[in-house]
Amino acid sequence: MNATASLSRPKPSDADIAAVAAELTQRFGGRAVSSAAVREQHGHTLTWVKNQPPDVVVYAETTEEVSEIVKLCAARGVPVIPYGTGTSLEGHVNAPLGGVTVDVSQMKAILAVHEEDLDCVVQAGVTRKALNEHLRDRGLFFPIDPGADASIGGMVATRASGTNAVRYGTMKDVVLSLTVVLANGEVIKTASRAKKSSAGYDLTRLFIGSEGTLGIVTEITLKLQGIPEAISAGICPFPSVKAACDAVIMTIQSGIPVARIELLDEVQVRAVNAHAKLTLPESPLLLLEFHGTEAGVKEQAERFGEIAAEFEGGPFDWATKPEDRSRLWQARHDAYWAARGLRPGAESVATDVCVPISRLAECVDATKQDILASGMIAPIVGHVGDGNFHVQPLVDVSNPAEVEACEAFVDRLVKRALSMEGTCTGEHGVGQKKMKYLEIEHGAEALNLMRLLKQSIDPHNIMNPGKIIAL
Amino acid sequence: MNATASLSRPKPSDADIAAVAAELTQRFGGRAVSSAAVREQHGHTLTWVKNQPPDVVVYAETTEEVSEIVKLCAARGVPVIPYGTGTSLEGHVNAPLGGVTVDVSQMKAILAVHEEDLDCVVQAGVTRKALNEHLRDRGLFFPIDPGADASIGGMVATRASGTNAVRYGTMKDVVLSLTVVLANGEVIKTASRAKKSSAGYDLTRLFIGSEGTLGIVTEITLKLQGIPEAISAGICPFPSVKAACDAVIMTIQSGIPVARIELLDEVQVRAVNAHAKLTLPESPLLLLEFHGTEAGVKEQAERFGEIAAEFEGGPFDWATKPEDRSRLWQARHDAYWAARGLRPGAESVATDVCVPISRLAECVDATKQDILASGMIAPIVGHVGDGNFHVQPLVDVSNPAEVEACEAFVDRLVKRALSMEGTCTGEHGVGQKKMKYLEIEHGAEALNLMRLLKQSIDPHNIMNPGKIIAL
After folding, report:
1. Which of A207, B81, B243, B259 has the fewest CB atoms in 10 Å of its CB?
2. Which CATH number fits domain B14-105+449-457: 3.30.43.10, 3.40.50.360, 3.40.50.1980, 3.40.710.10?
């Protein structure tokens, strides 16, 4: 392809930044903020990625306002960084060249719920929990659940998924249409509200996973699910991670429509027990959930129990009461914070590889040996039905040797997954930290095509520069 | 966006065509064909779209050969048109500027089946039936089933779906990765074999539905499904199309995981009865199929029966024997040919709109009234679980008044669907005939973004020119 020009761009001049800041203040008053605290908060991420604050933060309330902000920035070549809840894990919200962060957290209107069509239209700042709160009385739910209570806009940007993806898919599967502000401030809608369409290029999925580098998503039409008649959840210990993974493979192959099937290694179980005051058996553990009718759920559970027994797993312990179930999944969602409790004061490093499920046991096994050899504390959790798992090394960042060792470990982990036909990120996204792996994963020509897309759609590289595609 | 330049391009010169033809003959011998019959066959479509044959047809056997052909054509600005089985319905395989058709029907190797991962890798010319034949002994199947026995490459190109889409999704949902030859002959792989990834722009879905206008798909990694333990199918008559649609809405809303739910109006039922020697009740009819365990399928069927009764549908008649089930679905898949039997000698016009399911009954109803008023014979079938339906007017193309009336009808149909937040094509694709609706459906800015993608990726407009984006 013809994308040979560099995507590098200079930092905007102080004069341009000052001019844009003045224009934003004039237009948005107190909603345009330049205080150090707010700027720093908006460059902050949950991991050890270095904070690179923007110059100005603007709290937008509508698509039209986002368009206005982008136009002001485009006129002076000032970078624009979208921000939802700041829970991304690879430095997505950093502003390496400064610029204007568009905070959409106040865009939290649920614009429509079409019950008959099982869809809804939300502004980008609506969080997944707020949406589910709103939907509950209608018997509907939105299934995608990354650990954090992320904004829907941010989840679109990173192509997020979570524990329900094995059954309900990832963000790429649940978005019908997007409203997007492009790099010149133009507003487009990517698709109609029809459940399927063959009417031209898939603009919707062009923006899903584009991390704000091609445009800013301001409204999203989402597919919803009916809350199942029956839900049951349970835990099943296994003698080894390999036995647990083998049970997962057979469960998926057997066509059991499991809604969640999550692996915690024994280190993570210890962390969760301590954090959530639970008494889970401290061995590799699968957490499961089944959705369906009363009879269907019972049948699924029985069949899974038989499979688990084949791999010396069990006993299979059911949480039939909703409150026990909630506690279990809250514990799973808090795995990140629980893990941090294993080494107070240490920083947590997020990792996120995904391999074909046939390679999962091998990949997790080799990774555990690597952890052991390195002497790190690094629990593992995984959306194993999809072949996706996270290792969470806990690192004393004041110790350069430890930091270096951890970076080398993460590098080996990613390359191990790539060598098994996997990906460097299953759901967290590329941000700043995974950019260096894209060429290994995709090849130079495919990466060049991505670069071409970026250059064509954002020719002045003002949209979240320095993410996905190198500066 | 900045895509203001026209995509028009001149017809290549006779000298360039002659030179490319000579080069192709030298390289591919008897696999490069310029006979009138073969050329005409390759511009042929199943509908009334005018035949525009290419200058040369080359039967490619590998990705590398496709790359060579594209490079030869690119060097002289000669158009390249991909061809699978020629079963597309909107003029996709026509060559309005002449050029070289790359026939991939001989690329029919199934390169790998990964049973543990529920995926496989196929060449683009493998047809859906050949793939399922190959998979059957392994207990796996590939669910996407357009009416024709299309090639997988063609199904990728048009973002095809079919009767199973309500449960298993469309082509956009079942492709893990593609090998694509770009407009300069470069070969890329769009993704790894991991079940999910957030590693950059979604190149896979950029090409799904791009109809050969951005590149030629040569290999496809597909998700597969386990053949369900139990399958049951049935038919259920309804007093009206509206009652049938309302039953569909409630079935979907209730979360019954129906595998197929197809509508035939009474005209189509008459056609099917005559064609397949069946005795289906000649009223609006739902054809259903349920996949699951023995108990699960029984439960689903009972619950559907209750819903049908609420809308005065029934009796609900079960085809429990596999041969009866096959006959039923064969009859459904033959609906196209059955319909043609209603008016021997007439041409059949394919239509394909899709609306949010809440608008389906209204859209089908208004369309039936329109058919009645126009005096046409035009049966209706629909993948109604997705809000997608096809009207198939039968037209005497030697009668200009009839042709004009039919074109006006199709135009009203599409605009009706668009006015209901629907799409001008649910699964057939844009080809030549739906281009004029893209701006109404997407808006000028979004269409301009599509144009920009086309211009960036295929700057000399040699890839299937005159499809999706105007010449």
Report:
1. B243
2. 3.30.43.10
